[in-house]
Design brief:
Elements (H helix, E strand, L loop, with lengths): L2 H23 L6 E8 L4 E3 L7 E3 L9 E6 L4 H16 L4 E6 L3 H11 L6 E4 L3 H6 L6 E5 L4 E7 L4 H11 L2
């Protein structure tokens, strides 16, 4: 066998190693905001506050756009973005809703007792199917839904100041 034929697989392996290293070193995009053009899921969620009542977001309550934040008490990034959600709830009263994803209601209540409850209402998605219907890839994620039930914005990951401002603009402010 010729020498270059023996070196070729090693060179290919080294190239893949370099590409992998670059991917590990380069900072990943923690969150992603996208314009969405799909209908909110036609699903009814029991309310955390009173499980005999429920909420649906297709269409959402009221005649203004609403924000639905999918969160969980066990989610560290959810805790990190809680201040931004509180800010949005203060700026847009009645337009900020929560959906507790794969979380025990008791744990959700403790989480909100500790950090404060910025949500108008909170739906419960114990089995996680509702989150999947929304298009959830992992909590936290935020959706803005138009009054006619269209998802007009989807924020993957933690809200930060820039994304908070984008959501605020989509809510009408």
């Amino acid at each position: 066998m010729k020498r270059w034929q023996a070196i070729l697989p090693l060179a290919a392996l080294a190239g893949l190693g370099i590409l992998g290293g670059i991917q590990l070193i380069r900072p990943a995009e923690e969150s992603f905001t996208a314009k969405a053009d799909r209908v909110a899921p036609d699903r009814v969620f029991p309310l955390l506050q009173d499980s005999s009542q429920s909420i649906s977001f297709a269409p959402p309550p009221g005649d203004r756009p609403v924000m639905v934040n999918l969160f969980a008490s066990w989610c560290g990034p959810c805790r990190a973005e809680h201040g931004d959600i509180t800010w949005l709830a203060q700026k847009h009263p009645g337009q900020v809703y929560g959906l507790a994803y794969k979380d025990a209601p008791e744990a959700t209540r403790e989480f909100l007792a500790e950090l404060g409850n910025p949500f108008e209402k909170i739906g419960v998605d114990r089995d996680g199917q509702g989150g999947l219907d929304f298009g959830l890839t992992g909590v936290p994620e935020t959706f803005v839904i138009s009054p006619d039930g269209q998802i007009i914005m989807h924020v993957r990951g933690v809200l930060d100041e820039n994304r908070r401002e984008e959501v605020s603009a989509a809510l009408g402010g």
